[in-house]
Amino acid sequence: ISDTKRAIKEKFAIDDRIVFADYPETIAESSKVILGYVDRFKRFQPLTFDGDTGKISAKPETPHVYYTVEEKNPPLTITNIGSEDTALFMASGYIGGSGPRRAHIKADYLKSDGTSGRWYYTSDTQQNVSDKIILKPGEYCRFKYYDDGNPEYPDPGAYWQFYSEGSLLKVSGDISSMGRKLVNNSADATAGFCRYNHFFHGMSNLVSAKELILHPNPMSEAYRFMFYQCTSLVDAPDIPPPRSYHNTETHFYYGIYASMFGGCTALKRIKVNFTEWPRASDDDSISGIITRNWMSDVLPGGTFYKPEALEERFGPDYIPEGWTVENF
Asked: Model confidence over 149-195: pLDDT tens digits?
C-alpha cells in the first residue's frame, strides 16, 4: 500500500474483498474507502483511501473494532436480506424471573458501510439493553465480544439475546466471536467456552442460519433455546458433536441443545455431525438427552442430514416426525 509499509503481508479489505499486501503498491481503484488493516498489535485500524492522490490515512476516531489475521472464520454477521430497514439491539435476560445477576452486554460492531461502535452495558442488577443499529436492505453488521478484562460469573440463568424489528435477516460467521468471558469456575470456563442460550430466541424475521458456524461446546445449556420460536427460520446451522467436559467421550452436561429449535415451524433443513444421540453424564432418564425437546412443534416436510451411524429415531428429542432422512 502506498506510504503504508506496516500493511505489508497483512490482510485488509477493499470494498469487502479480502486481499493481502505482499509489497507496497498504489491502489488504482475508483473506490474511496478501505475498511482497514491489522496493525502490529493485531488490532483492526480503519483507513480511508483517496483515489485521486493514492494516499491512505488512518481514522483514529473509530478505534473500536478489533479483528486479527489469525481468525480463521469471519465473526458473527447479521445481514438484512429483506426490502425494508431493520433495527437490531441486544438485551439481557434471566431464566425464571429477576435473577441475582444480569449478563453484561459487551460487543464491538462494524457495519458494511464502515460505521463502527461499541455496546457496553454492565449492570448486575437491572436489565441491560443496548442502543439500536439500523441496517438498510443489503447491509450487514459484524459483531465481536469486547473483552474489558473483567470476566463475568457464569450464572446459569443469565443470558443475552438479540432482538430485531423490521425486514428479513440471515446470520452467518463464527458464533464464538461473541463468546462472553466467564470467571474461572472450571477448566472449560478458563478455556473461553460460554453459553449462547436464547441468543436469537423469538427473532421471527430470521430466515437462515445455514452459514452460522457453531463449535463443540461443553457448557451446560450452551445452545439451549438458541433459535426458539424463530418462526421464519428455514435453514439451521450444522450441529457439531457435543464436547466432553472430561477427558472421556461420555461426559456431557445437561441440555446443551435442549429446545434449540422448538417452535421453528418453517424449519426445512438441518445437518448433525454426531454418531449417537448424546446423553448427559450418568443420567439414563429421558431428561438426560441433551437434545431434549430440541425439535418440539417443528412441522413435517423437512430434510434431516446425519451420519449413517446415527440411529434413525423420530420425535421432538430426535428427528422431527414426517421428515426425510439423508445419510452421509
From this structure: 787 765 667 788 999 999 999 999 999 888 776 554 444 443 445 67
Burial class (CB in 10 A: 0-12, 13-18, 19+), 156: middle
Q: What pTM value is reported for the model?
A: 0.75
Handedness of CA 84, 164, 44, 47 (dihedral sign): positive
Q: What is the amino acid identity at position 95?
A: I
Supply φ then ψ for residue 123, to 5 degrees.
-70, 140
β-sheet with 158-166: strand ranges across: 133-135, 86-94, 158-166
Measure Cα distances from 101 to 158, 185, 213, 303 in Å: 7, 16, 28, 40
The phi, psi pair for 288, rounded to 5°, reads -75, -10
**What span, in angstroms and rounded, lies between the C-alpha atoms of 295 and 317?**
6
Contact between 293 and 327 under an 8 Å Cβ cutoff? The reply is no
In three-state secondary structure terms, 137 is coil
In whole angstroms, give the CA distance from residue 221 to residue 154: 12
